[in-house]
Design goal:
By secondary structure, this protein is an alpha/beta fold. The protein has a single domain, classed as Alpha-Beta Barrel (TIM Barrel). It has 13 helices and 10 strands.
């Protein structure tokens, strides 16, 4: 894996996708770049404190990296590099670059993440943003994670034909890893994409078993790992479910084995403390895509 890239890029990619098993467990906490203080991530430093020991890489915005992550962390950092919108917009597809490759390297990023919105009003703009980021990052051998985002109008567009199209286009532009959604027939999406695929967790699922099933099925059908956010830090026991996901990603556990592990870890010490009132509007906003 990654034998076609130069030494510097491969070194950075191997901080994300682990050499031992070609798998990755990434924690996504970049939602605030358009959602603001999403419930469960109002205080990022507090929310991630017990989670960092269990992950390979952290996907986040450059601002939160500077304020809420200590520089001695032995992690790969994937920095959000596209943006320019908010949940107050009619849709969230109007994105451009918000972080240069040079600044990302200065922050010791292992990669940058760019969202594209295939089939939306701003498809052309976001694809050119991806191209610009890839070309700029090439100067520094900096990997690019291409995210097939869906926004508000396409939030239900998570089926094989669409995801295969979007993932392939992102790979064709030169992204080193694609982040997309799981779907029925997902193995075909993987087969048609020439670069590794990481699965997005998406909005919070109903149960821990749902989260573990998603993880297991995605890996069985060809994903190299997961990049989960809300299904971890919005859960009642974030560190417990994260370790269950890790058991599947890196430990080869079954869903039943991982679920049993989560059950043993879900106790008062791993319970998330709700510091702020969570309204129905907060829940709806955090389920955008």
């Amino acid at each position: 894996m990654f034998d076609h890239v130069g030494w510097g890029k491969k070194n950075r990619l191997r901080k994300i996708v682990q050499q031992e098993d070609n798998r990755v467990l990434m924690l996504a906490i970049d939602h605030g770049y358009f959602m603001g203080p999403t419930h469960g991530m109002e205080k990022p430093r507090v929310a991630i404190h017990e989670l960092l020991p269990h992950i390979d890489s952290l996907m986040l915005s450059p601002g939160i990296l500077k304020t809420d992550v200590d520089p001695d962390q032995d992690l790969a950092f994937v920095l959000r590099a596209s943006g320019g919108n908010s949940v107050l917009d009619p849709d969230i597809d109007d994105e451009e670059l918000i972080l240069s490759a040079k600044e990302a390297v200065r922050l010791n990023a292992s990669a940058i993440a760019i969202s594209v919105y295939i089939g939306t009003e701003h498809q052309h703009q976001t694809l050119l943003t991806l191209a610009e980021a890839i070309n700029e990052a090439a100067e520094y051998d900096l990997p690019v994670l291409g995210v097939t985002a869906v926004g508000k109008k396409l939030k239900d567009k998570k089926e094989k034909r669409y995801l295969a199209l979007a993932s392939r286009i992102v790979a064709e532009y030169g992204a080193d890893i694609v982040k997309t959604y799981y779907c029925d027939g997902f193995s075909e999406v993987v087969a048609k994409c020439p670069v590794p695929i990481v699965i997005a967790g998406g909005p919070k699922l109903e149960t821990y078993e749902d989260v573990l099933n998603l993880t297991y099925k995605a890996l069985q059908e060809g994903a190299v790992g997961v990049d989960m956010g809300r299904n971890i830090w919005q859960s009642e026991h974030p560190a417990a479910i994260l370790q269950g996901v890790k058991a599947i990603v890196h430990g080869g556990a079954s869903v039943a084995e991982a679920l049993e592990l989560v059950g043993t870890l879900a106790n008062a010490s791993t319970a998330r403390q709700e510091e702020f009132e969570v309204t129905q509007e907060d829940i709806e906003i955090s389920s955008l895509h």
